[in-house]
Predict the 3D structure of the following.
Amino acid sequence: MRAEWTYIKELADELKERGVKEPEVFLVLGSGLGEIVEALEDRLTIDTHDLHGWPFSTVPGHAGALHWGRLGQCRVLMQQGRVHLYEGYEPPLVVRPVRTAIELGAKIVILTNAAGGVRQDLRPGTLLLLRDHLNLTGRNPLVGPNNDSRGPRFPDMSEIYDKALRRLLLDAAAALDLPLAEGVYAGLLGPSYETPAEVRMLGMLGADAVGMSTVLEAIAARHLGAAVAAVSCITNMAAGLPGAVLDHGEVQRMGATAGKNLAELLKWSLSRTHSDKERS
Ligand code: HPA
């Protein structure tokens, strides 16, 4: 079996050849959250089906594309169509795209997703900034031999979501007058939605929202020293809560609505990311 890092280096080389040069930010777009792609200047789109070793999504509504360009002065690589454990992919494949982006030079990783609201005040359409997560998938992308040249065997996850990035996103929300809640995301294996008993359990464990992605990518990115932020778009109340509608089509529709606000938030934040760095 070829070593995972061989794939990552080859993918990074191929993307460089196609013109992706030192992204500052890697942005992963969750289900139905593709609105921000339109804002990308000098946009180059790469069909990820053409990239040898790039995992492709099998889920309706998840495209397979990378978008490369600028938001203001900030060089951003966006992934549309992540892959999930529930599709049958092993953890290293789920995190291969984020590792490739960091190999290319990305220092900031922003993960977005669609999630169910566990906390009662998180109504559909709310944006939730992750303060922390519960990895309840039973899997971890760092299992197996560690690449000591890239990150430690036992990485500290006590601040997995970067404080300064969270501050920036909260400032963006305040400046744009967009509501942005904060909370803890529980990442589950899926693909079945939770039972009402499981949602009650998640609430007792301290989860504010639940979804089927993000946690492995956040762990892998943190392991490599990137600053990570994540925003959930609450598309439905989780199972058993008043008003819960669990339907993939509905999840996508709500995602598209809240996706507009998310795009505004990210545009504001990312254009500041570059100028902040220039100043320091
Ligand atoms: N549960 C898990 N994943 C989800 C949900 C949910 O209610 N909504 C969107 N993704």
About this structure: The chain is about 30% helix and 25% strand. Strands lie at 25-29, 41-47, 65-71, 74-80, 108-117, 127-135, 181-187, 209-211, 227-237.
